[in-house]
Amino acid sequence: MSEAIKSQGTCSERLIEENKCLQSLQVDSDNGVSMDILKEDVDELDRVSKANANHVVQNLMSCLKTLEDLGKQESELLSPCDAQRIKLQAEIFELEGRFTGDHECSNFLDSLDNFTSESEEELNSVKKALASRLRETLALKRLLDDVPTQTELIQYERRFSELFINIQDKHRQTRRYYATYNALLEIKDLTLKETSLLNSISSQFQDAIANSMSQMKLIESMEGILKGIQQKLDKVLLSHQEEQQVCNALKEKYAAATAEQRRCYALLKAFQEECAKNEKLRTQTST
């Protein structure tokens, strides 16, 4: 199309130049130029115009067809634009009609202010609800973070078992210390009593040798001391039997606790194996 327009332009330029030449020749004929030269130029012009007439007409027809197509496309493109323009103009007229009166304008501004205030209140309420929900979410997140995992629970269990064993050892050691202290304290009391008894016997023995009444008193006092010792011995034997019974009961409890401990160790081992299997399955399913 551009080549046709260019060729059309060149042909029109040629025609313009030839018209100018004709005009100049007419002026020269007025000044006495020969008419033969003019006729030759006219014949040449007719010949050139006839030779290029068909080509120019074809180019003009194609250009006209192209212009018609462009006009149709322009009308198709402008039709929605015109509709949009008409719609916008109608909206502009409507807005201008709204703002024509002061009363209507004030009512519109009041309604706009009310709508703005209501929107701000709604926004503030939504913000408050969002903040409360965020606080609840953070609290739940802290609780979830505080919940220990399975590995942490296993570590805690191991540490507690170790701590319990250490406490048991310290408790046994403390009980042994208290038992030793009580035994030594009883030995001390018995030693002091024995020493005082021997001292009293030694002091009364010299008097008892010289007098028969003193001998009887010494014998009676010795019998009383023997009875007291026998009663104390019976008491000690009774306490020994009670302690022996307590010891036997503790041995039975210890045996039961040992069996329970072994069972707990077996269960713990099985639980750890199951946890390891569970972790392995989780890793496989996640991958």
Automatic annotation (TrEMBL):
Residues 10-283 form the CCDC93 coiled-coil domain. InterPro entries: CCDC93, CCDC93_CC. GO terms for biological process: Golgi to plasma membrane transport. It holds the Pfam family CCDC93_CC. It comes from the Eukaryota. This is Coiled-coil domain-containing protein 93. It comes from Cucurbita argyrosperma subsp. sororia. The gene is ccdc93.
